[in-house]
Amino acid sequence: MAKDAKGAGKGLTRREVLRLLGGTAGACMLSTGIPGFGHSASNTRPNIIFILCDDHRWDHLSSMGHPFLKTPNLDRMYTDGVMCENAFVTTSLCSPSRASFLTGQYAHTHGVKNNITPWNNDNITFLEILKQHGYDTAFIGKWHMPGKGLPTLRGVDRFISFTAQRGQGQYYNCPLFVDGVETPSRKEYITQELTDYALDFIRQNRTNPFCVYLSLKAVHHQWLPPKDLKGIYKDVEDLGLPEEADNWLGLVNNNITYGTLGRLDDMYRRYCETIVSVDREVGRVMEGLEALRIAEDTAVIFVGDNGFFWGEHRLVDKRWAYEESIRVPFLVRYPRLIQSPGRKIEEMILNIDLAPTVLDLAGITPADHVQGRSIVPLLTSTQAPWRTSWLYEYYRDYPYTVPDVFAVRSDTYKYIETGSKSYPPELYNIKEDPKEMNNLYGSAKAADITTQMQKELEKLKRETGMVGP
Q1: What's the pTM?
Q2: Same domain, yes or no, for 105 and 149?
Q3: pLDDT value for 466
Q4: Angular region, 33: left φ>0, alpha ψ -120 to 50, beta rest
């Protein structure tokens, strides 16, 4: 298992890292010690499907008690598997978070610090490693990392993505690049189209296990559901939005972004309707696995790339280090492995944990350049040693006015610093003040915990290679 927040891999070349991982599939398969995992035959390793949703915050599931949103297929993933109810992203922004899922690294390590810094194609993804170890692999959906068009992504048998709307894609009739060839959409609605391609790949005759990375545009703005779901929540009167929100919040400073120039309640209804469309496609994936009789042999992981504010702290969008922005849904279904299904995992899970978890499921020990840690021990046991704090980082993303943000979150406290004198430090007791409304920074009674959290932030910066020793 990779050590948490260590081994940034600075100074290691791609060749050196690959050498650490081993030379051939047969030589590299290292035992995880998990009963039922064999490494001499490919059919003993699980198929893996990773579904990445966009801007989907953690509490927008009916199983989380949402007042009107219905997500029966995602709820079923929870009842058949586990819900990581304290899952977070280390950077709450599309491009850095997506690079962190693929590499298992912080933004300051993989280099995609915001939505305008380019992807370095020397980065090693878990798909590349799986391919070296005998997996059939596919990346299908939103790439959205800066660079000259789409990369030549190593380690995938199928690469389907889009460049429309600066890589965001469009909800209706979105042209795709299928293995480098521009291809018109076969389905009108993009989430259905991407699911179709994923199912096509899953249904292929093969002797190897497979891994599908299904990366959705939804539920990013403009929050457009398929036509048959449009308006299903138009009659909901009590949306449950926070008291500090108002309908014209998208026109306030720090909130004015492309896609938020409208009434908050109208946008929020569309957001929830679009989540329903995602839930429906997750159901189609599960039905496809069941039809092929491989559902029990397939690990399915569903996560959001970051959260989203709907008026909390009088904000719309993400980026800031508050809970609504950094916390995401994280569901895992794998019946052959998960002990006590239908339970919630309370430990703090991060997006950088995805890559080492996938590799661990496949029986591969990640190299030290991976900064996250496998959550497999949490899937197999209700008690396992885990992290007690973690580092959040956000780097200025022009033209947005949000400053650099660095924070440390523990089980009880969160401490936030920015790169701007306009925003003084913040300290919150998450247990007593989950909505982060009472800033304790500067109060005499919180002086000791402030010092402790400041030291912890600096320690994590050093351990992850953000700053020198």
Answers
A1: 0.91
A2: yes
A3: 95
A4: left
